[in-house]
Amino acid sequence: MLSCAVLLGAVSGVAEAAVIKNIVLVHGAFADGSGWSAVVQRLQGRGYHVAVVQNPLTSLEDDVRATERVLDRQSGNVLLVGHSWAGAVISQAGNSRNVRGLVYLSALAPASGESVNGLLDRLKAPMRGLTPDANGWVWLDDPQQFHTVMAGDIPLAKARELAAVQQPINVAAFQGTVSHAAWENKPSWYLITENDRALATPVQTQIAQQMQARVSRLYSSHLSMISHPDAVADFIDAAAQSFK
């Protein structure tokens, strides 16, 4: 007969294996990984190993590949977090074996066999005002427009900085198809931002409902990780802690 100590050790080992220690953060369009800095600092302060993906924003396939490279470097279970456009990226990359759950922040989440354009058309919310240049790149580098669309609750001076480092996205990315949406068979969380001029709150709500995600709401602009880093870190932490 196994001793109590052996049994307790076995149970403890199973519980320890389920704990999320790694968090991978994926940025959206018109941004780069530095936008996560305040959230990274808070999550590291809570003992997590945090890695941030730098998306090329050239196509869905390229961004998924960039995310998978970072996932491959993690030792142990991962909570994969995507903001905005990166919701499509983590929906595909989240099929990696070490990803236990997915967190979506004001994010797009196509279903299996669907593109971002297809998702928004299905929800009767097609993208407007995003005109690509002659080479197919969509920019948001006008400081005032960036402030209005992305960062209404961030000081204008900070919005100017963010507009200066914004990264354009190739319009082809929105046509890339998710072959299998990881949220269809892995637990997911969705943070809905209720003062969002980039992705309307009712559209976010529909997306979260179709995913059957665990939902929280925050009165924030689209860039919640910058304007409300404490709340965003709390949301990610709560998702990670749920696996205990």
TrEMBL record:
Keywords: Signal. SUPFAM superfamilies: alpha/beta-Hydrolases (SSF53474). The keyword Signal applies. It comes from the Bacteria. Residues 1-17 form the signal peptide. Residues 23-234 form the AB hydrolase-1 domain. Pfam families: Abhydrolase_6. InterPro entries: AB_hydrolase_1 (IPR000073), AB_hydrolase_fold (IPR029058), Sec-Metab_Biosynth_Hydrolase (IPR052897). This is Pimeloyl-ACP methyl ester carboxylesterase. It comes from Kosakonia oryzendophytica.
